[in-house]
Design goal:
Helix 1 runs parallel beside helix 2, helix 7 runs parallel beside helix 9 and helix 9 runs antiparallel to helix 10. The radius of gyration is 19 Å and the shape is globular. The chain is α/β, with parallel strands linked by helices. It is 39% helix and 17% strand. Strand 7, helix 7 and strand 8 form a beta-alpha-beta unit. The strands form 2 sheets. An 8-stranded mixed β-sheet has the order 1-4-5-6-7-8-9-10. The protein has one domain: Aldolase class I (TIM Barrel, Alpha-Beta Barrel).
């Protein structure tokens, strides 16, 4: 029997070569106005016997798999007994298993105790992908993120204390033309005080089915940033970032107009030089037909 996938199936770009097992369907926090990923699904935990059957099928096809991503949107919301069972099954099925990862919300991390997160880390859950989107609480409220700067900080600290790496994402353009400076400065403040292991940017891109809800939740005029505005946000973010611990930075997601890669704060000047060159036309931006989610 082949591995079962309930489509659509999403995973981070860095998980493209890894085994994917669906532990849940959809997202338990499926109300963010900028996101269309799981609008066609209702959240549900898959039956354990179905998850186990997929793990067994995967072990027959790919016995030396070493990294596993647990889909869908936030498998960390599952109860501890279920997560223990899945992680133990993966450990038993794959002798070369080195890492399990998943998407998480701030609430997922906050709801788990420090001891529970440490236990999950001991069972090889060693990386979570966390959508910060913004460090600005007003911006987060306007996109119905269900989080605040304070809850983001708590989630980042809890993961770090348990030894779990965090790959965090920020959405450029989320504050619009009027709110971009607060969006960026508050985000930099959050990252500087509570640095994740990895930080990536996405560029605000709304699919047709999300635009009306996004605009309605703004409760006022919202003007989208053009590429020049996005470059200004990116430049300010890089200039302000001085994290207490080194952060691996990327803006290579397909939505971004300017791909960047470096370590902060070490590579700040190099990254700022690339952004300046792009702003003056000396560095080509990604063509629009190549951008997407």
């Amino acid at each position: 029997m082949p591995i079962y996938y309930d489509m659509p199936l999403y995973r981070p770009p860095s998980e493209g070569n890894n085994l994917i097992i669906q532990a849940t369907l959809g997202c338990s926090a499926n109300y963010c106005t900028f996101c269309s990923m799981y609008k066609s699904k209702s959240f549900a935990a898959r039956p354990l016997d179905a998850v186990f059957a997929d793990i067994d099928a995967a072990a027959r096809e790919w016995p030396d798999a070493s990294r596993v991503f647990l889909a869908d949107g936030d498998a960390l919301t599952l109860p501890m007994d279920t997560l223990r069972a899945i992680l133990d099954k993966l450990h038993a099925a794959f002798s070369e298993l080195t890492r399990v990862s998943l998407y998480a919300t701030p609430k997922n991390l906050i709801d788990k105790s420090a001891g529970e997160l440490l236990e999950l880390k001991q069972r090889k859950l060693s990386l979570v992908y966390l959508g910060i989107e913004s460090g600005s609480t007003p911006v987060l409220k306007r996109v119905i993120k269900g989080a605040s700067q304070k809850s983001h900080a708590m989630a980042l600290d809890k993961a770090r204390d348990a030894g779990i790496k965090v790959s965090a994402t920020v959405i450029l353009g989320l504050g619009g033309e009027a709110g971009w400076e607060d969006h960026i400065s508050d985000t930099a403040d959050l990252i500087n005080a509570h640095p994740p292991t990895y930080l990536s940017t996405l560029q605000l891109t709304l699919e047709d089915g999300t635009i009306d809800a996004f605009m309605a939740a703004q409760k006022g005029e919202f003007n989208f940033q053009d590429d020049a505005g996005i470059l200004a946000e990116l430049e300010r973010l890089i200039a302000l970032l001085a994290p207490r611990r080194p952060v691996i930075f990327r803006s290579n997601h397909a939505s971004n107009c300017l791909p960047l890669a470096g370590n902060l704060p070490k590579d700040r000047d190099k990254l700022l030089a690339v952004i300046a060159a792009a702003g003056s036309g000396g560095h080509r931006l990604r063509p629009r037909f190549l951008r997407g989610l």
